[in-house]
Amino acid sequence: MAGGDAGRRALAGSGRWACRAVWTALWGGILLAGLWPFLGMPPTPRAQAIDQVVHVEAGGQAPASLPIATVERGGTSHFRVLLEVNRTERPLYLFVPLLSQHATIHMEGRLIADSDNRTVMEGLASGTSLLAVLPEDLLGAGPRAIDIHLQATGLQRAYLSRLYVGTAEELAPYYRLSVLVLEHLRAITVGAQLLMAVLALVIWLYRPREPLFRWLVALLALSLVTSILQVSGLATSVNGMGALAPMLGSSACLILVIVSLLLGGASPPRWLKLSVVGVPAFSLLVAAGPLPLAQVAMLVNIPMNVAAMMASTAIICREALSGVSRDACLLVVPAGLLGLACVHDVLMFFGVLDRPLFLSMYYRSIFTIGIAMVLMRRLGDSLMQLDQSNDRLRRALADREAELERMHEEDRRKAAEQALHEERQRLVMDLHDGLSGHLASIIAQSEEAGVAGIESTAREALDDLRLVIHSLDIGDGELRVALSSLRERLERQLHRIGVELEWSTARLPEVGGVTPTHALNVLRIVQEAVTNAIRHGGARHIRVAGSRSPEGCACLCVENDGVPFSCSELAGNGLANMQRRVAQLGGEIHIEAMPTGTRVLLLLPLTLSPADDAAVDMRNEVGANHALGLHLLRNAS
User: Fold this and answer.
1) Per-residue pLDDT at 397
2) Residue 614: which pLDDT band, with cuts at 50, 70 and 90?
3) Domains and CATH numbers, the chain
């Protein structure tokens, strides 16, 4: 058993280490993927690269290097490229890996690409790639002018990456990768947030008393609305709905602080809960005055968002490092990456970083993965606790059933014993009031009449009847009591005829499972051994001793100093009855002839088996006494 427990503990320990290794590898991969925009550059095509352009302005032209982020917000920038490319057998393409926000591309005055013709969503988080085929009739000897017009929104500067010219085989893989990251991943992010919001809502509906789920629903809902504003055309102007995204972000960031506290088991303060609504309401109230909505967002909401994001990240890291919350361990990497993306977006918004895209919406998907893991972990823990509770209940039910079965068997045994006891009492009373009284009358009458034979037989019958009556009161563990009662009767009888009795049963071990039938059988065997010693051996000294045999059995030894006799000589003088009784007891009997007498050894097991024919034996005993009574009547007649 100890080895099995050690094996299970070792298996559980290896399982925990394997689980930790999987989590470490998973979050390590997510961390590297999340840090990729900060640590490295995207792969570049092996094609002709263009990184020098001419910035065409109203006052003239100026050289510029790509990539470039225009300084003007809400304006348009014009860039020109002089491309000298000869005709080839395969079509040539112009590849723009990344541009933001709106762009049109002309070649020798002919429109060859327009980002408005794409199905990509545009807004604060807009960013797209273009792959335009170069018209063959415009390719030839001499440089060809390619004009690129960039239009920026009011809250974000326009961005133009390097340009590449090549064939479809050279540019198509990189174009597909850009479409995946800039378009499909963005839609997946919004869809994931919608899915998680619905999932959290369903869980909260089933667990309305759990405050964590209620705040998670609010957090995911606000994050979803903010993402939709960032990727849609609703937030493209300064005085429009563009400033609503940072205001809603203030509520979301404050809720994130509340969620971080709840993960650690702390209760959020009341003022923090009220600020979820109070901060956006204050911003709108200030914006109703002379201060523009965009300036309110820049002065109030964006700093508030950064502070709340940093605070929530610090709380989650502290809870994870202190081991207060396992949920916090799952959110350390997502919260850290989301906070890093928030700082990046703020620095980019104020012109400190020349980056093309806001990263917050992309990193919300990683945070959504963390929330999903928290929910799944709690669900798994709940199911595990449910399984453990079911196991405990099943074990408790099995133990209770076993206890009830034991109690039922005990009640049945007690009821049977009570019924047997009542039957014994009835039988004792009947024997005492009936046959015992008649025998006493016979003895008294025979003494007066001087009929010695009848008197002797009646006394034997009365002693035998008393022996039967006394055995009916013997219970488990009372074999010594029964033997003591037999000793008293034998001492009186042997004393009258001048036979010395030596009795010692103190060393007799305890015998269990004793019933009245067992006790009567033992008493009959000892009585028969004593009777045979007197009648057939003429013994003048009889010794009865109890002890434990070398085999561990209970041993009763009856020795006499009479004429020795063997089993063959004893045949017909009670040996058959003695053997029958010994067989019922499950023991053994040995009769040995000694030089100066005979020894009878009775070996009994320490626990006697139930006697199946107890009722038959009792009926036989009563029948024997009944026959003896008839014999006395015939003699009296």
Assistant:
1) 94
2) very low
3) 48-181 (2.60.120.260), 182-390 (1.20.1070), 410-636 (3.30.565.10)
Rounded CA gap, 291 and 280, in Å?
A: 15
Beta-ladder partners of 594: 597
User: What residues have CB less than 8 Å from 388, skipping those under 6 apart?
Assistant: none
Q: Residue 81 and residue 49: Cα distance in Å, rounded?
A: 12
Q: For the CA atoms of the chain, what is the radius of gyration? A: 54
359 secondary structure, DSSP code: -
Pairing mode, strands 541-548 and 500-504: parallel
Residue 624 has pLDDT above 60, yes or no: no
Mean pLDDT of the 318-330 span: 79
By the 8 A CB rule, do 578 and 525 touch? yes
Q: CA-based diameter of the chain, in Å?
A: 166
Angle (deg, nearest 10), helices 302-322 and 326-349: 150
H or E segment and range at residue 179: helix 168-179
- Sheet containing strand 60-65, edge to edge, reads 60-65, 52-57, 76-83, 144-151, 102-107, 110-114
Query: In this predicted model, what pLDDT tens digit does every residue of 23-55 receive, in sequence order?
Result: 566 656 666 555 555 555 567 788 888 888 898
pLDDT for 487-511, tens place per residue? 888 888 888 888 898 999 888 888 8
Residue 6: CA count within 13 A, CB half-sphere: 3
Secondary structure letter of residue 297 according to DSSP? I
Q: Cβ(81)–Cβ(134) under 8 Å?
A: no
Measured distance CA(127)–CA(115) in Å, rounded: 10
Q: Cis before residue 292, ω within 30 degrees of 0?
A: no
pTM of the model: 0.55
